[in-house]
Amino acid sequence: MFGFVLRRVGQTVVVLFTVSLIIFALMRLIPGDPVLIMLGDEFTDEAYRQLRAKLGLDRSGATQYLIWIGNVLLGDFGYSYLNHEKVSVLLYDAFLPTLSLVIATFIVGILIAIPSGIVAAMRKDSPWDYGSMGFAILVYSMPSFWKGIILIWVFSVHLRWFPAMGYVHPWADFWEAMWKLVLPAVTLGTFFSGLVARMIRSSLLEVLDQDYIKAARAKGVRQLALVYKHALSNALIPVVTVIGLQFGTLLGGAVLTETVFNIPGMGRLTVSAILIRDYQVVQGAILVGVFFVVLVNLIVDITYAFLNPKIRVT
Question: String of b and e for 149-174 (b: at least 16 CB within 10 Å)?
């Protein structure tokens, strides 16, 4: 088991190093000069050269990368001269709202996906099955930004049940924070639940067709006990992998959701930084996002190895 974990950690380090190279290179290929954006319309050549030297843009690309990655390893993501703040502070302030949204999304998605997937498998080819899977396909195929606008129109504008947009830190006012997260979490959570519910149904049906399940059924074990005591634990093994893979999708979907609901998270920070060519912020935001995606997938791999010891030798 230790060797398996060590290999996965090594792969994680290689992935992060490769991603950092790609991020750094792509930012330099984007048209536009951040120095021109900072100086405005009127400036002298001397001011231009001084600012480029101050930002370190007059050095070679390899030197810039080595300096940046060395500082990142020390926890220093640089300084945003356009936002007049340390990048680490900006990332910290933006990551907490995104983390709150993702956690709420996972809770909503799991609460919807597991019951609907189990019911669909237990009632195969029944109206319950068609209804739950039809709902799963519908919410999974709907664009998150459009779904969010519809939810605002129905539950905020007409019914006035929930606030339309905004964000409050949980430690400032916990219940208000949860209340404001309901619509964004439902927007992303229903998308997440659509895929997971279908995975649970297909995986559970496959397990229920196994010989040991048929033997237990022949011995008179009730259907409910058969599912929860014998089949569900095995059926959830591939679902765990899908949930881990969906973490990255949720972070990507959070960009549009944060924009619709005016949540000051990582998505909005990254988009605004790209528009003004704030290299340090973009590089830091994407690297932090990739780090957590890779970390979650590493945890999923280790969890999968505990659930299924056969893969520890691969």
Answer: eebbeebbeeeeebbbbebbeeeeee
Per the structure, the complete domain to which residue 285 belongs is given by 89-313
Mean pLDDT of the chain: 78
Alpha-carbon span 136 to 192, nearest angstrom: 9
- For residue 305, CA distances in Å to 72, 196, 293 come to 31, 20, 18
Confidence at residue 62, expressed as pLDDT on a 0 to 100 scale: 81
Tell me if 19 is assigned to some domain: no
Q: Among 296, 300, 286, which residue's Cα sits nearest to residue 252? A: 286
Q: What does the pLDDT average to over 256-280?
A: 80
Residue 308: both structure tokens together: 């299924």
Number of H helices, E strands in the chain: 13, 2
- For the full predicted model, state whether its pTM sits above 0.85: no
133: domain CATH number?
1.10.3720.10
Residue 265 lies in a domain: yes
